[in-house]
Amino acid sequence: MNEDLILNLLSENSVLIIAAVFLFICLFLGVRIVPQADKFVVERFGRLHSVLGPGINFIVPFLDVVRHKVSVLERQLPNANQDAITSDNVLVQVETSIFNRVTEPERTVYRIRDVDGAVQTTVAGIVRAEIGKMELDEVQSNRSQLIDQIKHLVEEAVNDWRIEVTRAEILDVNLDKATRDAMLQQLNAERARRAAVTEAEGNKRAVELNADAELYAAEQAAKARRVEAEAEAYATQVVAEAIATHGIEAAQYQVALKQVDAVSHIASGAGQQTIVLPASAMDAFGEAFGMLTGRKKQWLLFGASGGFGS
What we know:
The chain is of the alpha+beta class. The chain has 9 helices and 9 strands. A hairpin with a 2-residue loop joins β2 and β3 (47-52). α6 crosses α7 (248-267). The radius of gyration is 56 Å and the shape is rod-shaped.
């Protein structure tokens, strides 16, 4: 009895059931939820119809089909190594890395099948061409300029595919062992040359400073001799004036002072205990001491005033 009742209900409501199932299938096929980082390319009868953006989208069931799901996130392609020859015939192996993103999926999916492979091939060709225009030293020293040039050329090449190159990097430039050894020898030679130049410049500077010091010393000695000569000339003038005023005794007095000073200087030397003097010297000392004791008062006053050098 129960089975018959179920069959009767199904036969009476079969149309409603079929309609409900059809409606569910239409809703399932007609509603598309697109993630934020994706875009869906919709075809109708095999031709491009629309591009669905993030959020809830509605399409016509059975007529519209989501043919491509494309991510618009920035992507890093796998690091690629390619050989290149510089303008000075040095073989180098360059490791590159490219970051890109799809800007218009409807143009990309219908223009190129393997996007990543196409971009990598383009990058490899551009890198070889640009390095072939430069010498090895320029590749090493102008890496940032080379990266900018490669990025610009790759952007122009993939623009028809609506791919944006956000970043390009040259991670490494590898050389063969023979080239590395030659560069090391060149580097050591350059360091030795710089050291020799620095040492030579230091020696030159030292010679210049020594010459300046000797010149300065000579100038100072000349100035000292000039001062001494001026002082001697002044003293001679004073003596001449004293002789003219007081007669020959003023000169004798000055000579006596010089003799006493000379003997005192000799006696004060180290290890000098005995001084042998001639008899005439003793007479001269006697006269000098006599003159110093005040026999001529005007001479003493003249000597005390500093007119003569002692």
